[in-house]
Amino acid sequence: MAERPRSSGSSGKGRKPGPKKTSSPNPPGGKRSYNADRIVALRRNRQEAIAHAKEMTKRMGVEPVAKKDLAEDGERLHVRIAHSGLCSRRAAEKLILEGRVTVNDRIVAQMGVKVMPDDDVRVDGVPVTAAKIYTIVMNKPTGVVTTLSDPQGRPTIVRYLPQYGVQLKPVGRLDMETEGLLVCTNDGELALRLAHPKYGVEKEYQAVVLGIPDEKALQKLKDGVFVEGRKTLPARVEVVHVEPKSNTTGLRITIHEGRKRQIRLMCEFVGHPVQSLKRIRYGPLYVRGLRAGECKLLGKKEVDELRRMVGLPT
Question: The CATH number of the domain where 90 resides is what?
Answer without folding.
Answer: 3.10.290.10
